[in-house]
Amino acid sequence: MTDRIAWGVLMQTAPPAVVDAVVAAPGRQGPRRLPARVVVYYILAWALHSEASYEEVMRYVADGVAWEAQG
Fold first, then answer.
1. Residue 6 CB: number of other CB atoms within 10 A?
2. Above 90 in pLDDT, residue 27?
3. How many domains does the chain have?
């Protein structure tokens, strides 16, 4: 539950539309292995959870993206 609350706060702070607009700005395009939005949220989550491993942070982001997609 606390992860979902934290994810909601992160979504309010950096809404998907804003993140998408920033990564779509000129000069920011290129080949990617992950969607740009996921990478941005990963970096933000990593900054907030710097004590966690990369894998833990990615699980947090993956769970948050899945939760967001459910509506």
1. 15
2. no
3. 1
